[in-house]
Design brief:
- The structure is a single chain.
- By secondary structure, the chain is of the alpha/beta class.
- Helices cover 50% and strands 12% of the residues.
- A nine-stranded mixed β-sheet has the order 3-2-4-5-1-6-7-8-9, sandwiched between helices.
- Helix 1 runs parallel beside helix 3.
- The radius of gyration is 27 Å and the shape is elongated.
């Protein structure tokens, strides 16, 4: 048996044992049988998963109970072997590809057996016509990959259903950011999309992404915020400042707070403590983020919520598993963006990543451009939306007509809508937030 096939089997079993994707488990049980697995222990585990699915939820603990009931837990290697398969499953960004690989091998093996039966029958003196059924079975196209080819008729019908939903105003809205003009242009952020929020140093990337996080939490949407630069306490302090409308510097010297401000801070703390928000300060690689996101999705599901948003603050601070190796920095960042894009698609969630512009772009009198994104053209290629933040006062407070309370958003790329749209926000750095622009008389 091939090492690659054994690895595919472990990844498929481990993904089902994680219990965080019931749809994958259901589809896999419908496509494979125990006989498709080359390792006897894997056949036993797959059978136990199928039995567990008949009675309830499939995860590591429930499948272990099933194996114990049939006295086969020790036979398959016990908890350590099953847990290792679960960990190994996190290394794959596309477990369905491994399902297809197993199914294709099973189909090839079935053809081989049919051909062998036909040869044996011919050797026994049977004529060709008698063996026609064997030969037809052997030569029939039963490739799982071929079965996965989409039907254009089905796709057209799906689009027609979408068109009908739009006509009746029934299409689910995308994730709101709370930035009214941006939401109007994008129609909300769609699941599976990668959105890059780009800015020069100090222009407000974190403030913008925290604005979006707070709006998602208010809408009861689950959020995983990967903070690569700040501590959880710093992020919470910013959220309290924004929610309570109390200046950051007063939170750092709480003796300055009056009774009204204390009441607002207390209220904000109670509100934030109930948010469906996870602030992750440990993840450093895309694989780390994948593990954290999977855990967050499972935890949110227990309370009937969904993981709708993953925020990575910010892209250039990510590291590669095992180091960069022979990759240059542009290739490395490209791997980050592709990994995040795949993650969003698999978990059906929006991924927002902060990104810096090159130092050469630090001209307060010029709007930023796509080709000034730092370190990799893949950021532009992989992103569905690129939003640039321009705050001249942050670059040079003495240059131009802009004031300290102005920030401009510029949509440099919008894969599914209008690009180059520009809008204004009011900047409240002392409150770690932005707001709708002030009307000027």
């Amino acid at each position: 048996m091939s090492t690659a096939m054994v690895l595919s089997e472990r990844i498929v079993l481990g993904t089902m044992l994680r219990g965080d994707d019931p749809g994958f488990t259901t589809d896999t049980l419908g496509r494979l049988t125990p006989a498709a697995f080359t390792v006897p222990a894997h056949r036993t585990v797959f059978t136990a998963i199928a039995r567990t699915a008949d009675t309830g939820t499939v995860d590591l603990s429930t499948v272990m109970v099933t194996l114990e009931t049939t006295d086969t837990l020790a036979t398959v290697g016990g908890f350590d072997v099953l847990a290792a398969a679960v960990q190994e499953s996190f290394t794959s960004t596309a477990p369905t590809d491994h399902v297809a690989r197993i199914a294709d091998k099973a189909a090839v093996d079935a053809r081989r057996r049919a051909l062998q039966q036909a040869v044996v029958a011919l050797d026994d003196g049977q004529d060709l016509d008698t063996n026609r059924a064997f030969l037809m079975d052997a030569l029939a196209s039963t490739s799982a990959t071929a079965q996965l080819l989409p039907s254009i008729s089905d796709q057209v019908n799906e689009y027609f259903a979408l068109l009908d939903q739009r006509l009746n105003g029934e299409v689910p809205a995308g994730l709101r950011t709370g930035w009214s003009r941006f939401d109007e242009i994008t129609l909300g952020l769609q699941p599976g999309s990668l959105v890059t929020v780009a800015g020069r140093a100090g222009t407000g990337k974190t403030v913008a992404m925290m604005d979006w996080t707070r709006q998602a939490c208010r809408d009861d949407c689950g959020v995983l915020y990967v903070a690569l630069e700040m501590s959880a306490q710093q992020m919470i302090e910013r959220a309290i400042s924004a929610e309570a409308c109390v200046e950051l510097n007063k939170l750092r010297e709480p003796g300055c707070l009056d009774d009204d401000q204390w009441d607002r801070v207390s209220g904000a703390i109670s509100t934030i403590a109930a948010w469906p928000l996870f602030i992750d300060t440990r993840s450093r690689t895309v694989a780390d983020i994948r593990r954290a996101a999977t855990a967050a999705k499972a935890a949110l599901a227990e309370s009937g919520r969904e993981l709708r948003l993953i925020v990575v603050d910010y892209l250039q601070l990510l590291s590669s598993d095992g180091g960069r190796g022979s990759m240059n920095r542009a290739e490395e960042v490209g791997r980050f963006t592709r990994g995040l894009k795949l993650l969003g698609g698999e978990l059906e969630t929006v991924v927002v990543a902060g990104s810096q512009f090159n130092r050469s772009a630090a001209d307060p009198n010029k709007l930023p451009r796509l080709d000034e994104l730092k370190e990799s053209g893949s950021i532009e290629e992989d992103s569905d939306i690129v939003l640039a933040l321009h705050r001249p006062h942050a670059i040079d407070g003495q240059t131009g007509m802009a004031t300290a309370d102005e920030i401009t958003g510029l949509i440099l790329k919008n894969r599914h809508g209008a690009a180059q749209a520009q809008f204004e926000r009011a900047w409240h750095g002392h409150l770690a937030s932005t707001d709708e622009p002030m009307r000027r008389g």
